[in-house]
Model the fold of this input.
Amino acid sequence: MPSTKQPHRFSLMGVSGHVGSPDGLFLLSSATSAPVENVKLVDRVSPRRSRVGTLYLTATHSIFVESEAGVRNETWVLHSLVCSVEKQAAAASGCSLLIHCKNFQVLHFVIPRERECHDVHLSLQRLSQPESYVELYCFSYKPNVGEVERRQEWDLLDLKADYSRMGVPNSLWKLSPINRHYKVSDTYPADLFVPESAAPPVIVGSSKFRSRGRFPTLSYYSKDNHAAICRSSQPLSGFSARCLEDEQMLEAILRSNPRSDFMYVVDTRPKLNAIANRAAGKGYENEDNYSNIKFQFIGIENIHVMRNSQQKMLEVCELRSPSMSDFLEGLESSGWLKHIKAVLDAGIFIAKAVAEEAVSVLVHCSDGWDRTAQVCSVACVLLDPYYRTLRGLMVLIERDWVSFGHKFSHRCNHLVGDPKEVSPIIDQFLECVWQLMEQFPCAFEFNERFLIAIHGHIYSCQYGNFIGNNQRERIELGVRERTHSLWSYLWMNRADFINPLYRPDHSQTQGLLRPSTAPYCFKFWRGLYNHFDRGMHPRQSVEDYLQAIQEETQQLHDQLASHKQKIGKLEQEQVWRVTQKTTTLDKSPTAWALGNDLTVANTPQDYTGDFISSSPCQPKAPESSLILLPHDLNQKSEANLSNGSDQESGIADLSCRSPLSEDSTRDPDSDEAAYSAA
Amino acid sequence: MNIKLIKYGVMEFAELIKTPRVDGVVLHRPFLPTVEGTLCLTGHHLILSSRQDNTEELWLLHSNIDSIEKRFVGSLGSIIVKCKDLRVIQLDIPGMEECLNISSSVEALSTLDSVSLMYPFFYRPMFEVIEDGWNSFLPEEVFKDLESMTDEWRLSEVNKDFSVCPSYPPLVAVPKDVDDDTLRKVASFRHSGRFPVLSYYHKKNGMVMMRAGQPLTGTNGRRCKEDEKLINATLRPGKRGYIIDTRTINVAQQAKARGGGFESEANYPQWRRIHKTIERANVLQEGLIKLVEACNDQSHSMDRWLSKLEASNWQTHVKEILTTACLAAQCIDREGASVLVHGTEGTDSTLQVTSLAQIILDPACRTIRGFQGLVEREWLQAGHPFQQRCAQSAFSNNKSRQEAPVFLLFLDCVWQILRQFPCSFEFSESFLVLLFEHAYASQFGTFLGNGAAGRAKLSLPEKTVSLWSWVNRPQELERLTNPLYEANSLVIWPSVAPQSLLLWEGVFLRWNRSSKCLDEAYEEMVHIIEYNKELQNKVNSLRRQLAQLETEDPLLQTP
Done:
């Protein structure tokens, strides 16, 4: 089992679960400050279900250990995932500490003494705001993996292989060594594909006419019809400036698509923003200066608008028992889904230009690392079924985001820095993919869990992949030499991330996806933004059910083969006594049949728990649970304590926003409040 | 096409049909290719049949038509037909006169007032009735189940001629110690004579759920000893109960002025009263109209869509109804208390709550047959006025009178629970959609009439076919079965957080988007499950073969 290779230690982030005592002991000894006793972890949704325990701060995690007799229940939160720590005014019950995480987990601790709360607050603030890269978790994360294997992790994905899968280099596109030492553009990767006819002086000249030297270069090439998606930053055109080399560069791109007599230039910014940029000597292409281009604005808002929008949406997600109107009004006024739609619309425009018109497209925004990355990668997902596979999506993120210099460190706030640089641009890309998965349930090899896992680790800093802002920085930091790769971890655990409905030969899987962009096709992504509010999610998962069935089907295949073999043997030989019971025979189907597992899956214990526990046979290493979330043992135990029977535990699981809070049912006089609150 | 059927219709409704047949009519439906063919009007159907063999015919019940609009471009007329199942189609009809004739005929035929002219009275089943649905859920049979669990209840015939309560069935379950005279007195104290009756018995702890109409306390606080006695008779010694009033306290207060009211705690000391906020019929109808309008306007921006969705308040209604049902279920199951549910008449919000609470509490209600039984008991026999409520749907221009999507909201809530517990229901979403369709327009008599007395007068069992007769045939059951179903004996508690409640796309967006990809996903899911079963059977048969070989084997060697 691949996952066992990954050690448990330090692997949990923001997870409440049961960790074996050896790990626990290890952690306690490495605690950086004295443990704080009698801390209350408040259940945000139903406050009466809060838990009391001890809070430990280690160098890398905050760990809350519940002090309920009999169960050992731990909640781990990686410091690098902490987005903000807020200390509230002291009350009679203690002093509240509110921790918001980048994976949208919210923890509310109540610490009895203000002094202690103050200390924890200060420590956490320091620990969660690293100032230099070396402090990041990926540099201290040392799973039990040999150096040779660790190096191999980084070889899992090979961008060159992806380019050759696309069909380049060929007679139209060549690999250019011009940026080998990051001299032309320090935010671009070393290896870039350019039109065959683009000579180095043209490239260099063009790069001087583009923000941050980000000249037009190949992002995706369609083998079938030679149409290409190219990307760049904005031209430094100001009000009237021209650049011959830049014009030649676009001409060269057009020529690399022999059958086409024009190309699109897509500026993903709202027109007003682009015009405003002209005053700063930047701007957009003038159709008169470039031969045979069709220029198009697609109004996607800038990083600041997106940041505020997500912030507003998260506030709505965090409301305590909101009404339907509160929620829908908040969702609307956040504008979030409108922005998601804008990104998807832009992706569709480009994908259609490439697939249906066979016309090449040059995409840019301002710097060409935010909206451009979103739009190019969404277009790729729509265009090419490969990017809808597990490996394909990883390659796509590695190419369009990591290699092309999306500023992960700034956008994800890995280090303490300018808060105005932070923006959920990659979140929006992942959400666009999720929205597409909702419309095309059979078209994607991976499941929602995969997207959530990627999201969590982009922010966790546990792996080196998203450290720094571009390739050059990552080389300087030596992430390949000093850290582990997320892609390898995901690949080894791919069994958890497979969409059971995916079939490579399904008609839905083939060719261009044509999603509907009617507003009602866009949904709120509960799975990500309310990921940790378990009570809001369906209690039974169709996907897990199907996954379990497929695993069983696999076993049946084996059984079938072995039975056939046995029968053949018996019929042929018909001589010797067959020993009665071999191991395979022992396993009568009913012994492991799905039926049994489903009975379990239908009991509430499994809904609350980690999805994986419902798959019949494989115990998973906690590694996988980190994305999947709580083995919510606390809920189980609570249910068991209060009720004592299987039947009743179903009720204790009635979580969150159902009408009565748990405890109120034991206390009739307090009900009124609970009912009216509901 | 069934010629006999058409002729019959033509004879009966001849004077309403001005033009029975037009050639060269073109049908437009969203996401489907256009069809050209001959349009025929019969007494009950609008039929479009194409001359090509491969194209399916359109058969539309006139009673399914909610509104009809005419448009003319030159001599080409179009009628836009908006159906109660929320489908919108366009028919291009050559010739202005034909178009006008068709339009006015359809308008007349789709708004016939007389129940006895409805299609179910003319429909003859073209399938073999295996089990007559009219006899499938008789109260006396249902009561036998109750008797096997408890002897605290009896079946009263006090309403056998509908004189005590016209909306109740002739047989109702009441506390054993309460005699029929008392029931009569209580009936005079409750709205429309709806005295408290048993709705559900929770086997696990013996707690019960009852439903009734509002007490007629009026402004001067009238009380009724018999009423107090009756509902107290349902409490175990020392136990308390909950009265769930589906109205806000303000609305309940206002009802006093019109002779209604609520149980004062002074007179019912063993009961705690809780007020909830389920909206009244006309508000729900308004919500439906707004929601459907929002869903049908493709030109909306995201902001406008979300604000219209919000303004329709549909999801708010779903949340309120579900929350109230959860509350009732929780009182019964968690608190071990009995519950009495009522609103004003006790025929709308009350039934939503009592039926949903049973879905939550009782695994039997989550089976196909159990759900039919629930609809039969808690909606049809309990006197929900289907005909009034479902006379119009979201498009009608006529001023709505008694129309309200009370039953549709119930189905929506069931769908929400089904989404949250996709493996706990024996039926799939298509069963809920089917019930929605048939409640509004049907060839079956099941949803005709208003209340038990009204339905009895129509002699439905004698003159019409029951929907259940059709549903409970193997081929239909197979279509409605949820392939993921695994019996779940637990109480299932849905989440009522706004994030958990979704728009029921299967009804509201059904005609506004292509469902191809989702249908394929469903087929793929069925395929995965079927393939697994197939393999299981193969393995089992091989195992038997193997076992046989193994036992035979020694014998073979002995000689």
Notes: Confidence is low (pLDDT under 50) at residues 1-10 of chain B. The CA atoms of residues 531 and 537 of chain B lie 10 Å apart.
